[in-house]
Amino acid sequence: KAKSLGKNQYCVYKEEMGFHEVRKLELEKDLQRALEDQQFFIEYQPKWNVKTNSLWGFEALLRWKHPRMGIVSPNEFIPIAEETGFIIPLTRWTLEEACRQCKVWNTAGIAQSVSVNLSTRLFQTDHLIDWVQDALEKVGLEPCLLELEITESMVIYDIQDIVRQLQCLREMGIKVSMDDFGTGYSSIGLLDRLPIDTLKLDRLFTYDLDSPSKRAIIHAIVLMAEQLHLDVIAEGVEHEEHIAFLTQLGCFVMQGYYYGKPMKQDIIMTWVNQKQSAASSSDSNI
Ligand code: C2E
Ligand code: MG
Ligand code: MG
Ligand code: MG
């Protein structure tokens, strides 16, 4: 039976490959003009502190509105942009745009940070620090309101060089967080060497809180983070049970669909006002 299916499956597989390859090539070509054509925009996802029942900050998540293909996921275009080097102008744009938006919130009384995701490529340029400084100065944002998210996987190459650059950024007052913590290699060893402020627990942990071993791991990570004076943020918080489990384990800052999906900038202010008045009315009920 497998044999008779074999040939067909092979064809399907080949067509699939063709489709993906064609799409990738097309995206690669179209990326070059997308920035000047203003096809990118940013959505901001809130991080919420359940202990104080207040906003912790936002993460800037890049979106590409392709003229023919519609919204393309960053999971698809970021790897292409990394391969081609286009990630560099793209990240510089994102940094400046996110800082500008954060400044707007700040002026309106929302003194919370914005975080921007960084790819390894940025650390290999020798200009990262200047670019970050430029973005902050251009919009007049205080450095302590900017956070940069890095991942464990990017540190496997030249750790000393990355450490040096991160130190420099932190001396400027910028915060650094380790994104998707727990999914890469040598996570724990890195914590000892990297100058960071925050651990973002990958959402794989949040998904699987029924598993006693996952809970034990989260608990251990939270205790370790406390000793290292790191904040912990749980990603992918979608349900009320997640919150109950996570707070039991000592994790109080959450990011996920339960609190808010990534949102366009124009609805953020309304969202914040609603959340804050809901929070203060639930506080006064206690
Ligand atoms: P990330 O940095 O780990 O961002 C979190 C991702 O999880 C986002 O996906 C967000 O929409 C999604 N998410 C948030 N809450 C929930 C939830 O409750 N449930 C589920 N299932 N998902 C949730 P998104 O926006 O598709 O971004 C995917 C990845 O693309 C990001 O993962 C980040 O690694 C990368 N990315 C996005 N923007 C940029 C950027 O400007 N530069 C770089 N280098 N990478 C970026
Ligand atoms: Mg991130
Ligand atoms: Mg993440
Ligand atoms: Mg993630």
Automatic annotation (TrEMBL):
It comes from the Bacteria. Residues 24-276 form the EAL domain. This is EAL domain-containing protein. The lineage of its organism: Bacteria, Bacillati, Bacillota, Bacilli, Bacillales. The chain holds residues 388 to 673 of 673 of the full protein.
